[in-house]
Amino acid sequence: MAGLLRNITGWGRSAGRAGNHALDASGLGQQALIGIVENSADPIMISGPAGEVFYANAAYRAMAGITGDSFIAPGVSKLVRGDAGQAERLYRLQKAARDNIPAEEVLSIGAGGARRHYNVRVTPLGRVTPLDNAAPAACWTFLLRPEMPAAPDTMNHVFDMADNAPVGIASARRDGRLNYINQAFSEWTGIAQDMVLAGGVSVFSLMEETPLPWELDMAAPDIGITRAALRAASGGLIPVSLIYAVRRDAAGEPCEVHMMLRDLRDQGAFERDDLAGIESRYSRLFDVAPVGIVIVDPDAKILQQNAAFQQRFHEKSARGENFLDMVDRDYRNDVRRKIAEALGNGRQDGHTEIQIGAPGATRSAQLFVTRVQDSGAESAALYLVDITEQKHLELQFAQSQKMQAVGQLAGGIAHDFNNLLTAIIGYSDLLLGRHHAGDPSFSDIHQIKQNASRAANLVRQLLAFSRQQTLKPKVISLTDLLAELNNLLRRLLGDRVDLNMTLGRNLGRIKADQGQLENVIINLTVNARDAMGPEGGEIRIRTENVSASEARALDHAWMPPGDCVLIEVSDNGPGIPKEIIGKIFEPFFTTKEVGKGTGLGLSTAYGIIKQQGGNIYVTSEPGGGAVFRIYLPRHDEDDGEAAAPVADAEPADLTGKGLILLVEDEEPVRAFVSRALAGKGYTVLEASSGEMAIELMRANSGRIDLMISDVMMPNMDGASLLKEIRVLAPNTKVIFISGYAEDAFRNNDEQLGEFAFLPKPFTLRQLAARVKEVMGNN
Ligand code: ADP
Q: What separation in Å is there between the alpha carbon of 605 and the centre of ligand 1?
């Protein structure tokens, strides 16, 4: 061995290598040098021109698994096993040694399971004449890579994966020469992996066009994706998607390009698969959309429709039918225009509201139309949002708003009329007092009074509608009320009408003005009788408890909160036409001949029920009769009030004495009342306003026995006046006279104290009786 090393150092000198000069310069002797190399912890090997081992140190021999004193060691290729990557890297090192250039690669070396990764460096030693005339020798040093020992198989595993990957993988030098291809690449191109390792295949010969990044002379981005075509072994081209990464050397110069290629020949199938997926997703979305969607051709013939459309708008609609046939006649032109607009300019200008559906079951919808350009054929997509419920509520709301406005108007008119009627009736009374029954004027005056009283009745109905009448509610049993009413109703309805009552078991009680509620029921039955005509028919009255939750579940705009009681009056007459059903609760709306109907029946009923905290609804199918349903709040507790007191018998003698302050802004009323009271023996002080009344009260401090006052007056109203009077003269008795309901100002009892009430219009007798009654309570 010593001889061999001596030779080597001899080559070194003749090769003129810098390292070897240094060795000499160090002044170390050859033996010492040999010792250092032999005992180096890193494996070192000197190879000859054919790769044969000239020398291997102890560490190399150990790495090769040689035990004992043998100096014979195997070449590196015997130690390197594994995949193509290993082989390729070894090849590069061997080539470098042959080419007399330095190189470095990572190799996995070892026997059995003890494989380790080394940085293997080839240092050329130049041509050594004494041994070989032509070929150079090289020194191989092996530096153990410290980071790899934990996973000695990782490298192999990675190489295996690359080799067997389902995509093509290749690597090429800057000059285009391939230095690695995996199996897939090899199969596609028919180039054996060995041929590539031998370095004879250029990437340019395998690609139809110069692939990026060579095309840009390595100026392309370091990582990129492009399309390319690979020349197939079978002839023809394989379309590939090519992902590349440019590797740079230590100086930053591109030196290698790694490539991954995906065969795009199956792309069509991919796309078809994708398309099928998209289509099934789309049709799912189409069907579960919360709006109806219909695709139609330019003539509105249905090409496609979703499930929501059929469920919500037209169960039986089918492909090929014309969409317009499903639309209510009145809206067809709108739909036609919308489709034409969308197809014409492709714009979608807001929506239009339509009625659509099977006859008798039409629904309201908002319709949006857009153009659909589908592979040349033109069609329109119609989107329908169901707004039936919303419309219904809107209508109900508008209706209740209207009723409120009309009520206010009616109330105002009624109030003015009451003042006029009070004066007319009052003056007739005064006149009647001066004419005896035998007098020719007597009957005329009587006629005036009677007609004024009829007018007063009408006004009372108006007030009922505007909910401004005085009610006397008490807790009552509907069952009892209907039982009592039964006979009267039968008489009213006559022989041709069957009256059937179904009264609910354990029916809850209600709090209502019995007389008014009776009026409502009579009104509804008489209307039903009139509607059915001389032929007659059947009227049913049904009562039932309705729980709070059932009430809430009903499709009504407003329901009394809590438990209710239902009174239903239905008939089998002709029903109420759609056009007028929204108007029947309005005052003066009637379809009856002049003189027969006033149009106040239902409006009165409406007002009465509303005033008692309930609601009344009507439904009617043409030809199927009408159903009126009244919901009143259930009121089971006794309110302790005795039944309405029977009107006190009027005193026979209506004359009296005392000082009365009369406050009334309406001159005719004031004049009549004043005269009437004076006629009965009272002294009357007149005031036309609250302010004037206070002055008079002050001036006559303590002498005034009774104040009679209007309620609604400009500036100071009756209630404010009373509050002042309570301070000035707390014991003064008070009677309010008003065309409005007592409840309208009774809600502040504490401050107002005790007072009596006389609704307008009143007769002279009623006035005198009330005054006598209140004054008498001295
Ligand atoms: P009137 O009875 O004086 O006409 P209403 O206010 O009581 O006034 O009724 C208003 C209109 O409502 C009636 O003229 C009629 O057209 C309609 N109506 C009321 N009840 C029914 C019913 N049961 N069937 C058909 N139409 C009805």
A: 11
